[in-house]
Amino acid sequence: MQEKIKEIASRVRELRELSEISVEKMAESLQVSSDAYEKYESGTEDISASILFEIAHLLQVDMATLLTGEEPRMNIFTVTRNGKGVSVERRKQYRYQNLAEKFIHKKAEFFIVTVEPKPQGTKPDTNSHPGQEFNYVLEGSLKVYIHNNEITLNEGDSIYFDSNYEHAMEALEGEPAKFLAAIM
To answer: What pairing do the DSSP bridges indicate for beta strands 86-91 and 94-98?
Structure first.
């Protein structure tokens, strides 16, 4: 996994430099310190999917380019077979599987996200990113934390929200939960 983090970090750095955007400008746009941003580019700090999504937007590239190093080429359709999407483990609490990384000029990113249960009494870390998000629970139960609210979702339930607000997901009942996420 550490090698994958370094590969993504290297692509981010190279694309930022080619775009002639300073570290300070990227950090300001992402609302992180320059020091934190430099850790992303050095590969010493993992980049969350939400920050990676923002970086892709700022660099005007598809997120798949940052994840895989390949430019998407499909423009009529793309099929992702069960279990074959590009897997991304961006944070310890979430595991992402990108479902449409080969399609060019997407208006949204689609993932299957698996949330592992945390020790009792431990709250998940929150994150935020520009745009909106839709989550549909495929397996298990989730507690969604968003803007001072706690919402329990079970299999078949969904939520659509403004992802500019801090949010997090927590697996319930000591079992992993899996949901379809669309980030727009």
So the answer is: antiparallel
Span 118-143, average pLDDT: 88
Phi, psi of 169 (to 5 degrees): -125, 140
Per the CB < 8 A criterion, the answer to whether 142 and 180 are in contact is no
Instruction: Tell me the three-class secondary structure of 133-174, residue by residue.
Output: EEEEEEECEEEEEECCEEEEEECCCEEEEECCCCEEEEECCC
Task: Render pLDDT for 31-47 as a digit per residue (tens, 0 to 9).
Answer: 899 999 999 999 888 88
pLDDT tens, residue by residue, 98-120: 787 788 788 888 889 999 998 88
The burial of 120, by beta-carbon neighbours within 10 Å (0-12 exposed, 13-18 middle, 19 or more buried), is given as exposed
In percent, the amount of the chain with pLDDT more than 90 equals 43
Element (H, E) at 98: strand 94-98
Alpha-carbon torsion, ordered 136, 143, 82, 162, to 10 deg? 50
CA pair distance 57, 54, nearest whole angstrom: 5
Record the pTM.
Answer: 0.67
CA distance 15 to 12: 5
Q: pLDDT band for position 86 (50/70/90)? A: low
